[in-house]
Amino acid sequence: MPPIKRNPKAPRQIPPEVAPNVRVQGGAVEVAGGFTTEQAQVESLRCLNCKDAKCVEACPLHIDIKSFIQHIVLGDVASAFDKISERSPFPGICGRVCQHELFCESACLLGKKLDPVAIGSLERFCSDHHRQFNGKAPVVKANPTGPKIAMVGSGPASLMASFVLAQRGYRVTVFEALHRLGGVLIYGVPPFRLPREILDSEIARLEAMGVKFETDVIVGNSVTLEELFHEEGFEAVFLGTGAGLPFMLNIPGENLIGVYTANEFLTRINLMNANETGADTPVNIGKHTVVIGGGNSAMDAARWSKRLGADTTILFRRGRAELRARAEEIEHAEQEGIKFEFLGAPVALFGDENGWLNEMECIRMKLGEPDSSGRPSPVPIEGSNYRIPVDTVIAAVGQAPNPTLQRTTPQLITNRGKIVVDVNRQTNMDKVFAGGDVVRGGSTVILAMSDGLAAADAIDKALKLQQKEVEIVGAEA
Amino acid sequence: MNKIIRKQQLTPETALFEVEAPRIAKRWKPGQFIIVRPNAGSERIPLTLVDGNKERGTITIVVQRIGKTSAVTVATPADGAFHDVVGPLGEPAHITSVGKVTLLAGGVGVAEVLPVAKAFKEAGNYTVVLAGARTDSLRILREELLAVADEVIWATDDGSFGFAGNVVQLLQDVVKASGEKPDLSHVIGPIPMMRAAAKATKDLGIKTYASVNPVMIDGTGMCGGCRVTVRGKVRFACVEGPEFDAHEVDFEELTRRTKAYKKQEVQAYEAHKCALGLQAH
Domains of chain B (ranges plus CATH)? Predict the structure, then answer.
């Protein structure tokens, strides 16, 4: 075999993208394409194959990045896919929505001098390649027979915990309140960022491993936590109920028609297909939309608004550097012609005699001392108020944990709505664990997954210990 | 999928369904609601629970044909199933023992008031249901009402049965005639009726709860679409309601907000009827 010729100085490969003018017409069409085999080769040859690979450590799932890239170098994409699969069954999801720039790619040694290796795109390449040529996902372990574990919510945290526990032989059931699986990945993330067949096929992988899914079950309302233990025979419960409670703007006029929370706007479209002609659940979109906020939900809502034909502006009270969304989504939004108005905040909304929004009043801000988020605080400039015409306002100003379960489980200790857990993701309740946004507030998909991973370890440990105790007691008797 | 166990056509546009839903049957309380999607792709529509049977594992709902999705629901055959049923949702009705309780119900509200009236009676109250319909032939669940309330008085808009007029006028009439007013009132029905009831009971000085029905998507407090202003404060009807003090609800705003999708609803319903017509030929 000829020696491998690394070429770290080659330019970082850029995956193809659908042209901005085409994709804003195309609705749900995925924006970012994947690497070609040639691009994946060039990109993987940029990897320095560091002895002490920092990227592995920086990945919240500790995917063996270095090894999977070396498999691509050798042209063995199947092995690269298997390497990722050891730690994560979700390369198609993570290859698309993970904030690689904050995790693996930020630790890439090459990035100190040149552009870091495009690890996210390589991960996605492995997933797409596998889907295209192998089709079926490998079954890690079928028909688990161990203790029953319940997952509450079907978002990233629960999905990851399910994978690990099913792999170790536990019988896992996932309860989802909505009628489709995926949590924020289905109601929040638009299909132009994460096509539904990718999401569905990676969830199907868990099903193939024996994980059961029950939609339309709201734990807390349809069944209590206590009943899961005492009547349905679950031996541990993981709470991954996410952050589904939207913050309101708390300004006059926010109940006018045309004012949406990002959750409602995105749910109507992502989950209920309001973008499609003839869909049963509609959405109202006017000529001028203002989206308030600077996170991923703001970008997603703005990009949908643009796709539905509205002139769209993102109003953010800080500057561009303080935006919290993924870098790629910000760039995509800019390319698509979404206007950004920085250092501005809404003050009041006005409507016509029928209650339809038609104007908003804003105020200019300047940046002050850093606040608790570590970012410069926005300070209103007195007397700088101005008014703009608008017929749709979407509030994407953050969300708190979904309080449904907490309300019906008063013994569960929370702090400002967030479930309090110890380092093992254990709550104050016996055999009840929690992770993801319900613990962190609004966070990222990958950190939710890492919580699921940690909680699964802790559940495994807790139940194994319990089994041991039972055995000892039995022996004495 | 939730199997239909029993279907009863109450009027040409209203049907009662007993549906398999063991988890909900076990936990539901009067005043709570469920979300139904009759078919894959349907809207999520909130419907008040009328009854629940723990032993049989079934729940009962009554649906009136108003738009496309409710029409599809009403048309679901007796041997069919609903694609999704989720609940129970919302807070149960405030059931207290106060003495005499008058319950005002209009339209399908007549069905929805059944469990609430029953609960008030079981709590030791004397219960009077003022039930309304457009005309005699549209009066629903007459026997069932008599079984759960101490008194049932009917009002029809056209005077074809009972009191001629609506239930709000009936309440005013009853209070005037008897010279005494109830200790508490509960109202459920179309928004204009609840709005009028809130005004009348406020004038009469009767503490009143209204079960409101704003536009809703998920029903779990996630979307915020069901916002209702109560005593100047924004509340989410799906998790904090659906019942609020009727005198504190901003009915004007609620009325406006429920019209947000009027245009699309009319279009969808017309297209639906049109498609049905084509199928029939």
Answer: 4-89 (2.40.30.10), 100-258 (3.40.50.80)
